[in-house]
Amino acid sequence: MAASIAKFRIIFGGLALLWVAVSSYPVTAQQPTSVDPTARAVSEQQLLKQFKTIQGRGSIPDTKSYTIEQPAGRDWRHFHEVTLRWIGGVAILGILGLLVVFYLWRGMVRIENGRSGHTIVRFNAAERFVHWMTASCFVILALSGLNITFGRALLLPLMSPEGFTTWSEWAKYAHNYLSFPFTLGVILIFLTWVAGNIPNRVDVEWFRRAGGLVGHDRPPAYRFNGGQKLIYWIVVLGGGAIAISGYLLMFPFYGTDIQTMQSAEIAHGIIAMLFIAAMLGHIYIGTIGMEGAFEAMGAGTVDVNWAKEHHNLWFEEVRAGDEPQLAQHQPAATPGE
Amino acid sequence: MARMKFLCDADRCIECNACVTACKNENEVPWGINRRRVVTINDGQPGERSVSMACMHCTDAPCQAVCPVNAFYTTADGVVLHSKDICIGCGYCFYACPFGAPQYPRVGNFGSRGKMDKCTYCAGGPEPDGSAAEYEKYGANRLAEGKLPLCAEMCSTKSLLAGDGEIIAEIYKERVAKRGYGSGAWGWNTAYRETITS
């Protein structure tokens, strides 16, 4: 027994000695003859491939400056110079073209039974205030925004560089500051009319019959028809998205980085162009597109026949619930009419 | 005509920040604005590299392309300059710039931006060369005096090179050939669509 243990010891000791000798051999052999300081150095191409940006540590307080390279700016540039101009051009000119063609073909949608001379309240003063506050801000925001995308190509050649800068600077201030009443307006619009704008089965019917825009169809509607509900949700959701992306741009780098800023600008630009196109349709049908429509938001009252033809279910609701509203007479038709 | 470029040899940069200081001093750069900065990548780890970065004066400059009021212009030497009289401080050039060069003084509440400021390659702006108005808005115009940007002139290890693109590329190539390694001209592919191969 003792002999076998001694034998093991010799074998084990020999193996251990051999292992030490073998393992120590490459260490001396690996002693480098020359130093390659770039062996573990970071490389630009590899960093860009891996992270899309190159960031490090700097010694000045501006943390944005720690990003030394972001080639993604090139994609953003292409969006701003080419893509957004196409989206805006096609959406805005496209809808204008459609409206002109539609107007020439269909003309103004008339009150078929003529004016009754009796009016009914459609929007009270508070509702109209909310509408016009938002609408007037929207027009200025749209024009000053379009100036950023198209001004250099369309307006600058007509003005002096200094003149264009003065106008653009004022447009920028207007765009920034009017965003506040606009956003407030979108919130108030949401609260004021949300009850009447929940989609229901009547809207399906309304859209199936194309809103009565074709022919002399008059699909039934409550206070807001399918098209108006569509505009309402475009304003609420589109306006909300445009406000959020806009405030991200207005408060640059408050919790955002360069990629977020670029994305916010892309979202803001696309939504704005589509929003403007949608509002052109809204303005059309509210003015020259339909007889008796503008006064709903203008004076706040509409002709009873208009209400019967375009919002029959709403008219019946009002007549059933609130008889006195009907008592309002139009202040006597002008003599000789 | 020369085509002026910057080249930072990252294998030589020792992160001393002399270029940053030289730039601030020479151009009287306003408080809070740094036209040039040094950034260290993988700081404290083996293989860390420092790069001095400012406006690279790109070929077909993206800032110039996206500016809504056309405030930028490229000189015959390939230097990208801008007019602070035309700039409206919209911030678009910062989104497009691959190198984070444009800076904006904070002039009001929240994030409202003043006239953009960036590296001018020590070449001033649209005002007459060497005029007080030019110095006030853009800093020194060393190029008009036949001198190169002070950041590169000041560089103690000659890591930062400024000058005609072909000449500084040649200097860099010689270095790489002699020492046997080089991590490349940082930003050149993005700015000038070219790389220096040795």
Description of the structure:
The complex is a heterodimer of chains A (337) and B (198). By secondary structure, chain A is mainly alpha-helical. Chain A contains eleven helices and four strands, in the order ααββαβααααααβαα. The model of chain A is unreliable at 329-337 (pLDDT under 50). In chain A, the strands form two sheets. Chain A has a two-stranded antiparallel sheet. Chain A has a two-stranded antiparallel sheet with strand order 3-4. Chain A starts with a helix and ends in a 16-residue tail after the last helix. The longest helix of chain A is centred in the N-terminal third of the chain and has 34 residues, at 73-106. Chain B has a single domain (4-192), classed as Alpha-Beta Plaits. In chain B, the strands form three sheets. Chain B has a two-stranded antiparallel ribbon. A two-stranded antiparallel ribbon of chain B has the order 2-3. In chain B, a hairpin with a 7-residue loop joins strand 2 (37-41) and strand 3. Chain B is an alpha+beta fold and 198 residues long. At the A-B interface, helix 2, strand 1, strand 2, helix 3 and helix 4 of A face strand 2, strand 3, helix 2 and helix 3 of B.
